[in-house]
Amino acid sequence: METQSYFLAYVALGGNIGNTKEIFAQVIQKLKGDVHIKEFFCSSIYLTTPVGNSHQDNFYNAVCHFLTSYHPHELLEVLQKIERSLGKMEKPKTAPRIIDLDILFFENSVLNTENLTIPHPRWKERLFVLVPLAEITKQVTVIEENLVKTIVIKDLIDNFVNYHNEIVIKV
Q1: Dihedral sign computed on CA atoms, order 89, 134, 29, 60
Q2: For 91, which of 41, 95, 114, 142 could close a Cys bridge (C-beta 3.0–4.6 Å)?
Q3: Which helix (H) or strand (E) segment is 13 a member of?
Q4: Mean pLDDT of the chain, nearest integer
Q5: Backbone angles phi, psi at 141, to 5 degrees
Q6: Burial (CB count within 10 angstroms: exposed 0-12, middle 13-18, buried 19+), residue 133
Q7: Domain map of the chain by residue range?
Q8: To which CATH superfamily is domain 7-170 assigned?
């Protein structure tokens, strides 16, 4: 009997249109119900100020991690299907949105394709990612510049330069 391999994935949730907390609950339910996902855990939800286009409502954000037997592009397809099922339409990066699901990390993978970059290219530049991430893990191991690095999330937060004047509040 062949054993299935599982990979640790971190996914960021964000949104600021509609009942975002209910939408997050639906996302979590869909992910927890997927037979290719186990050991699911999610941070608290945080209310955060928008980055970039500040002329919009505040966002809700969270970060989840889980083990999955999907490979990175398969997980991306699953997340995009969930987004579409909840009404997401393609918009500019900083536009208001019903739901946004981004893969932050996938095991220790480094991937740079047309539609997926892992680790997420701006994860260290977003307080709305770092704060919920710190709630569910103390550190992440990533490969940067061909070196394996263990990064302590609290250190990133303590040394964060808040160019966008982000405010992150646990709700």
Answers
A1: negative
A2: 95
A3: strand 7-15
A4: 93
A5: -110, 125
A6: buried
A7: 7-170
A8: 7,8-Dihydro-6-hydroxymethylpterin-pyrophosphokinase HPPK (3.30.70.560)
What letter represents residue 68's amino acid?
Answer: T
Instruction: State residue 103's pLDDT score.
Output: 98
Q: Model confidence over 105-139: pLDDT tens digits?
A: 999 889 999 999 999 999 999 999 999 999 999 99
Strands (E), 24-93: 37-42, 46-48, 59-68
Q: Which residue has the tokens 């062949």?
A: 2
Residue 107: φ, ψ to 5°? 55, -135
Burial, 95: exposed, middle or buried (Cβ in 10 Å; 0-12, 13-18, 19+)? middle
Measured CA to CA in angstroms, residue 105 lies from 76, 100, 167 at distances of: 12, 15, 24
**Plot region of 163 (φ>0 → left; ψ -120 to 50 → alpha; else → beta):** alpha
